[in-house]
Every structure is written in C-alpha cells, then in structure tokens.
Amino acid sequence: MKRACLTVMLGLSLACAEPVTITDADGNKVTVQDSSRVVTLGGPITEIVYALGVGNRVIAADTSSTFPAAAQALPKVGYQRSLSAEGIIALKPTLVIGTTEAGPPSTLAQLRAAGLNVLILPAEYTPEGTRAKISALGKVFGREAKAAEINMGIDRDLAKAANLAARFKVRPKVMFIYARGPQLVQISGTGTAANAMISLGGGVNAVRGVQGYKPLTPEAAVTAAPDVILMLSGGLESLGGVDGVLKLPGLAQTPAGRNRRVVALDDLYLLGFGPRLGRAVQDLTLRLHPELAR
C-alpha cells in the first residue's frame, strides 16, 4: 500500500511540476508540463535521458536506442526516420522527444494533431550542439546540475583528445564507409556525423567534393586514397570482417587496404554525439594515431 501511494505521489509530482518552456529546432516555444511518460526518438536522445538519471520515465524508444543496456529492453516504435504515428499515440505518452532526424514530418504532424506534446531538438554534429541538447533536456527534467556535469566531462575529454592529436603534424586521410552488407556500401562526404568525428579525431576526410553519402565506386576509392578506413562495428560485421572490406572494388589498392588499416567502433558510440562524445573522440584519436598508445 505504501509503495502504491508513493508511486501515485511521484506520478502526480511529475505531472504537476513547474512548466518548462524550450525553444525547438524550428524556433517554436514548446511548454513541457508533464514528463512522466516519455517516448524518445533517436539513440542520442535516449542516452541523454538515461545519463540524466531519468530513464525510468521512458516508456518506449526507437530502434536506434541501443545504449544503455536498459534501453534495449524498451518497447520499440520503429526507426526514427520512418516512424508511424499510430503506435506512438497508443502508448499515451505525455512527452515525445526527438531531433530533426526524426520523421517523416507528416508523422510528427499527426502526433501533434492527436494532442501529444512533441519536442524536436536540432541534430547538430558539433560539441556545441551536443552540449545544447543535454542542457535543454536537463531543463526539461529538472536536472540542470547533472546536465552541466555531463557537459563538463565532455569538454575535459575533448581537450585531452585535442592535445593528443596536436602532437602530430600529419593528419591521416580517413574514409568512412557505411555498409549493410555488400549490396549497400556508401562513403561519407561533408555534412555528416562521420565527417565531424573524423575532424575531431585528428583526421582529414579523404572523400572530397561530396555532400552527404554516395555509393562507393572503385574510382572513388582510388581517388580518395585513404590511409584509414573507418566503419561502424555492425557494418564491418555485415561484410565479413576486414577481409570482406578489402574485397570491395578499389579498396585493396588504397594505402589503407595495403596496410589493412580498418577501424571500427560501435554505431551509437561513434556517430551519436551524445553524453559519450568526448570518450568516443579520444578513442578515435588513439585509433587514428596508434603510435600514441605505445
């Protein structure tokens, strides 16, 4: 009985907390009055909510929400870029949080038309954008002090990574390859999370003149001549490991291919731009400059 009463009281306190107003990605003011039942769209958003210590309020998430482990057990509402409104509405959330990567726009419009409170934050692939997301969600959940602590940790780790990378005059040329089996292999140009991470990690994007992603071709591989091939762990596995990667047309003839320099990191860890950003940049810096670890 006591536990039931406490649960009810906690729910009421969350529902009746002081309203918080946040400016969303479109410049609109979104007022949050109840954060007791949250649906998170996007791995970085889910990870931030858990890092703030309020993961118990998340009732469902999208399929890219793979960290922390507790998030993997949540009911899933589909992939953030191809959502369906019906499943989310049926959960009766008091708040839906995502970034500009969430969509399609018609689904978000349906959620709002159904009376759901939807907060969409900018998906910026920068340390500043990451800190802004964390600060905004810290305000939403009344965890401003925790948000500041997380951001300070990110800054410390980024400073360490920058100091490491500064020790080398030559920045390796890095080609990021996104793969989901041999039938879907793309390379990353500018305007992507991968491009931003390569720069933060002390590398240079080997792919020039490309905005976003484009299919890998033998000509593109040879022209880019990467020193390092960077991939997501899942993508590397989908190709059968390093040997499978080097079977892709043109890659074996590159410096990275000849030296078998293929670096792979977890998907959300590498490209999430969430609470672990600083650690991920440090890790990537060491992978791109292996002499630092000696």
UniProtKB/TrEMBL annotation:
Residues in Fe/B12 periplasmic-binding domain copies:
37-294
- Supply the Pfam families for this chain: Peripla_BP_2
State whether keyword Phosphoprotein applies.
Answer: no
Q: Is NAD one of the keywords UniProt gives this record?
A: no
PROSITE patterns, A to Z: FE_B12_PBP, PROKAR_LIPOPROTEIN
Name of the protein in question: Periplasmic binding protein
Organism's domain of life? Bacteria
CDD domains xrefs = HutB
